[in-house]
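SEVERITY: medium
COMPONENT: batch folding queue
REPORTER: lab tech (J.R.)

DESCRIPTION
The queue accepted two submissions in a row. Attaching both inputs and their returned structure tokens so the on-call engineer can compare them side by side.

ATTACHMENT 1
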Amino acid sequence: MTTPILQVRDLRVSYGGVAAVKGVDLSVAAAERVCVIGANGAGKSSLLRALVGLEPLAGGSVIWRGERIDHLPAFERARRGISLVPEGRGVFPRLTVQENIRIGGHARRGRSMAADIERVYSLMPRLAERRLQLAGTLSGGEQQMLAIGRAMIGAPDLLLLDEPSMGLAPMMVQTIFEVIAGIASAGVTILLVEQNARLALRSTTRAWVLDGGRVMLAGSSAELADDPRVRTAYLGD
């Protein structure tokens, strides 16, 4: 692997003294597509939230482009090029599609918002068609697109996605992952947390298996997809 843009060392997260993430190490290179899989409660969402500064660390470090950033607030990490699409989408239902997207520009880094809004619409034409529609009236899949579009308006170098397929019909899941592939092909680094392990491994090149807050397995996505332990526990084989 080339020099990583993101390194996580001995990362720990606790809630009220209960450890959720227990010493995770991982690294991600520029333009990689990587994933973290695991069961509910494995610590996957806590890991992502800690990376973007939404959860305090109980220990460890987050290093971005060679600089420790775990002391920085979330908005400063966003300014450095790290964006999160949260589980549950979190759109503002009483605002329009375009207003939701513009909110994502609060941590922009000197780029033209108009140009990036059009870039989002080119990636997801359905959002362009609904730009004046209230977000609360969108389907679940359209709201997921909107959450991705809002994260992309900050022109991130690293896009973290937390369970993007959750609650969506199979056809819409395929559409969402086509959108993610399009973003990756434009050079954006992808770190994906996804309960649909088969889809996650098929869509990435490297993976980690998180269990009980610890990394239990790591390797290429193809290797893990063939690992009997992963096939039994996560692929239903």
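ATTACHMENT 2
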Amino acid sequence: MRIISLLPSNTELACALGLADQIVGISHECDYPPEVSDRPILTSSGIAKNLNTEQIHEQVSKEVKNSHALYHIDQSLLESLRPELILTQAKCDVCAVDYDEVEAAVAKLPFPHPKILSFQPDSLEDLFEDLRKIAIATGRQQQAETVIAQWRQRIEKVHEIVRSTKERPRVLLLEWLKPLMAAGSWSPQLVKLAGGEHGLNPGPGKAKKITWDQVRQYDPEVLVLIPCGFTIEKTLRDISLLTALPGWQTLSAVRAKKVFAVDGSSYFNRPGPRLVDSLEILASLLHPKLFLNSFTQTSVLSLY
């Protein structure tokens, strides 16, 4: 089957089913696993490069207000690749190609049109179902159940260890630095499973805009920076947006040296197989005495 994936998480899910060799095209953000890096890229972003957090938010808000598409599909390349299955999303138009754009592009293709699978996960359970949907479309149902069983085993292992302690630190996963956004969707569930409380956005629901006064009043004991689509290096370039705020040094997380930057682009923001890795990372940050470090220096950096 000839598969096109227009979202990094979908690419990883397909590869988890052993479909890497059937992926004939990817999005400009599909960077994992390495074996798909040489595939033709069908999308491009209209967001200028090298902008900081605040500038990105301003440009995105302006483009959305003016009903301008943030991402574009290479129509001629799409036609030449002759896909039979397209994996996309209907969750966040800011993160990837809009679903309507995908439908419009497919409508221009010669018959027979490829099947479109669109996902909008909000939890780990949704992640499992998304994998199953890809498996059904590609005849990989048995492989899907094997992978899901492995994920569940890892999740339960974390849950079992967490049960041995009554400590439930106040946690804040920051999905954006200006404006401040408390992570939503699956993130509150990850915090709970990892043995913490995500009080500023307990879920369910989308990321939530919060104020600095709310952060100071909540006073997180563990602060994890996971700006959407940002590597650690890019987060560090914008860290002054936080550290310059009044009362930064008085936060419990800062005083306890429990402020961490995580490669959000690869982990917490991406609803694919590495959400389970994200859970293990988070458990290690919240309860370091109970867990061996489930991360490398390239995925997590202790800041304060």
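NOTES FROM REPORTER
The radius of gyration is 20 Å.
No errors were logged for either attachment.
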